[in-house]
Amino acid sequence: MQAMVGSQTVAANAADVLVDMSEASMTRLLVDGCLTRDCALDLLAVDAIVTYAFEAASDEPSRLEERAGRALARIAALARPYGT
User: Fold this and answer.
1) Are 14 and 51 in contact, with CB atoms under 8 Å apart?
2) By the 8 A CB rule, do 39 and 29 touch?
């Protein structure tokens, strides 16, 4: 995980770091044209990272709705350059 987030401190905020990782991973998959069943395992890995992000976010239930909204907006924005 540390290799994927570079200089970020993983312990600083696991939920946000995991959302960052999922966004970066999904961006890489989209740039590489990974939109078919051949990439299913990669896409499932991104899904798992998002799931772990929300598991980590549940440690702060008062921020869950705000975090979910932010994560949803970031993930949805990834589709814009690809015409979906």
Assistant:
1) no
2) yes
Report domain extents, the chain.
12-79
What is the per-residue pLDDT across 20-74, written as a single tens digit (0 to 9) for each?
999 999 999 988 888 788 899 999 999 999 999 999 988 888 988 998 999 989 9
Q: Which of 15, 21, 76 is nearest to 45 (CA)?
A: 21
User: Does residue 22 contact residue 46 with C-beta atoms inside 8 Å?
Assistant: yes
Closest C-alpha to 27, from 71, 67, 75: 75
DSSP per-residue string spanning 17-75: HHHHHHHHHHHHHHHTT--SGGGHHHHHHHHHHHHHHHHHHTTSGGGHHHHHHHHHHHH
